[in-house]
Design brief:
The chain is α+β, with helices and mostly antiparallel strands. The chain contains 3 helices and 4 strands. Strands 3-2-1-4 form a 4-stranded mixed sheet, covered by helices on one side. Strand 1 and strand 2 form a beta hairpin. The protein is globular and about 50 Å long.
């Protein structure tokens, strides 16, 4: 299974309707790994994000999957910063993300 979180972004002078995506909880049961299912799930999420107008999609990859995520189009970015723990909890507000479940036809 794989989840795509779509979040509205602040308007700019170039675009009033901006959306970004985040690939979340992409997993394949152990006995089905190595068959390309994970890659199909990632590509399905990216296709859905494109259809929904996402400017970009991020992923917080696991230790086991950076090579797969890069194979499917993700790249490291020096511009993406992360706040963890108390900082993130202090600033966390009500989420406006819409979650879509995308499944592969496999």
């Amino acid at each position: 299974m794989a989840w795509l979180a779509l979040t509205s972004r602040v308007a700019t002078v170039h675009s009033r309707d901006r959306v970004s995506g985040d690939l979340q909880s992409c997993s394949v049961v152990p006995q089905m790994r190595g068959r390309g299912i994970g890659g199909r799930l990632v590509r399905a999420v990216l296709a859905t994000a494109t259809e929904r107008g996402a400017e970009h999609v991020t992923v917080h990859t696991s230790a086991e999957s950076p090579a797969m995520d890069e194979r499917d189009g993700f790249r490291p970015s020096a511009r993406l910063l992360w706040a963890e723990g108390e900082v993130a909890e202090r600033w966390a507000g009500p989420s406006r993300a819409r979650h879509l479940r995308v499944t592969s036809g496999a």
